[in-house]
Design a protein that fits this description.
Chloramphenicol Acetyltransferase; four-stranded mixed beta sheet; 3 domains; 14 helices; alpha+beta
């Protein structure tokens, strides 16, 4: 069976060394209460039965990769007992990192695995890792929902009587290839060709380290949050301009990137679930698509004008989201480089796949917080709304940025958003972006270069004192020539 276009791209990428970990999807569940190990194992086994994608391998036939679906096998669950460990939480985080980094074989499978960690008699952690080629962010929610339902059934001694979906991921892949043979492919392709014509190949942000010749995928994260007051003001601003919170924050994030890079043309990537057929909503699979959102800063737009532009761009992109990103790249034919991703290098994602707390028979289930060590792009802003606040992370490539640089970018975003809510008629290029303390440091602290010299000293006397104290120190530099204080004095 054919691969979807997204799978094809990921399969080809997987043939390169050092990128596999960047395309793993780890899930961590903390289970508090009395665990039924047999019900847990049976629930995981049945999830694999219900989702063909989790039984799929990718083999080469006639020089091209194809999907091969295997019969269901018991879920391979490794058990760790940390109940006697002196620092169980630290060991847990180490195991979680190792689990997320472990390699997969696309040709041998399976492309899902798990570990169960016992921290105490009534505290366990379940770690599940899937390869992105058979899963995506939305799939995390499907996995957790299925696990909760099935565990509850088996814990109660019941059986799973819900029919397995007749539609599976491979059906979507076949449909996608047929769909792209029609007129809609041309219409969507024409939209993206117009939208991205002449866009810059690279967003040239100031970076701390030279960009490697080949993109690396090591990364880290810094946290950021918008308090309830700012979140409320952003909601009010969005309502006045007919935008979503996503669009409003996108406008601010694009402004930060534009001002840091000095570019008036900024392209930011964003993921969309791409589950436009209802039957796909309950499937585990690689459906997500990437949209390229181009933000135009020419003409010195005001906040109001920028929000209008961003809204128009986002709505247009959503209306043409079905063309796979891989096909957009093929249509646009941007200049390619192994040093960075094509079309965009910065992402913005509004997450809605966080694991919510759930009550199961005898168990309280919650998500396990852990830090990712990968970065598929230069920068990725991940946000979600929790209660009355917006929280998230800035993921960054450690090959390009120091953590303090990215933390500063996060502060710029918060400060700019605050300014946007108070100055809708102001030009975004003139809005304050530096926090007060950083502005003070730039304008005053780093410019405090005055030196107090003794009033009774002469200039030549100060020079002779310098010669005596450090004669070998450099006094003058001209092109490739350097002259020390001692040599200058002898001349």
């Amino acid at each position: 069976m054919p691969l979807s276009f997204a799978q094809q791209r990921l399969w080809f990428l997987s043939q390169m060394e050092g990128i596999s970990e960047a395309y793993h999807i780890p899930v961590g569940l903390r289970l508090m209460g009395t665990l039924d190990p047999e019900a847990l194992q049976r629930a995981l086994n049945q999830i694999v039965v219900r989702h063909e994608s989790l039984r799929t391998r990718f083999v080469v036939v006639g020089g091209a990769p194809v999907q091969q679906i295997d019969p269901a096998k018991p879920f391979d669950l490794t058990i760790h007992d940390l109940s006697e460990a002196s620092d169980a939480e630290s060991e847990l985080q180490q195991i979680a990192r190792e689990e997320a980094r472990g390699s997969f074989s696309l040709s041998s499978g399976p492309l899902i695995r798990g570990r169960l960690i016992r921290l105490a008699p009534t505290e366990h952690v379940l770690l599940v890792t899937m390869h992105h080629i058979v899963s995506d962010g939305w799939s995390i929610g499907v996995l957790v929902k299925d696990f909760s339902r099935l565990y509850s059934l088996y814990r109660a001694g019941e059986v799973d009587s819900e029919p397995v979906s007749a539609i599976q991921y491979v059906d979507y892949a076949v449909w996608q290839h047929r769909w792209l043979g029609g007129d809609r492919r041309e219409a969507q392709g024409a939209y993206w060709e117009t939208a991205l014509s002449g866009a810059p190949a690279l967003l040239e942000l100031p970076i701390d380290y030279p960009r490697p010749a080949q993109q690396r995928y090591e990364g880290r994260q810094v946290r950021l949050s918008f308090d309830a007051t700012l979140t409320g003001e952003l909601k009010a601003l969005s309502q006045r301009h007919g935008t979503t919170l996503f669009m409003t924050v996108l406008a601010a994030w694009a402004t930060v990137l534009s001002r840091l890079s000095g570019q008036q043309d900024v392209v930011i990537g964003t993921p969309v679930a791409n589950r436009t057929q209802r039957e796909t909503e309950e499937l585990i699979g690689f459906f997500v698509n990437m949209l390229s959102l181009r933000v135009d800063f020419t003409g010195q737009p005001t906040v109001s004008e920028l929000l209008r532009r961003v809204r128009e761009t986002a709505i247009g992109a959503q209306a043409h989201q079905e063309l796979p990103f891989e096909q957009v790249v093929e249509r646009i034919k941007p200049s390619r480089s192994q040093a960075h991703s094509p079309i965009f290098q910065v992402m913005f994602a509004w997450q809605n796949n966080e694991v919510s707390d759930l009550e199961l028979p005898g168990l309280h289930l919650s998500g396990l917080e852990s830090e990712s060590s990968v970065a598929k792009f230069d920068l990725t802003l991940n946000l979600s709304e929790t209660d009355d606040e917006i929280e998230g992370i800035l993921e960054y490539s450690t090959a390009l940025f120091k953590s303090e640089t990215v933390e500063r970018y996060g502060r710029y975003l918060v400060r700019l958003l605050e300014a946007m809510t108070r100055g809708e008629d102001e030009r975004v290029s003139q809005l304050p972006m530096l926090p007060a303390e950083e502005r003070e440091q730039l304008l005053v602290g780093w410019n405090a270069t005055e030196v107090a010299y003794p009033l009774e000293s002469t200039v030549h006397g100060l020079f002779e004192a310098q010669v005596e104290g450090s004669p070998e120190s450099t006094a003058l530099v001209y092109e490739e020539e350097r002259v020390s204080y001692g040599e200058l004095n002898r001349r």
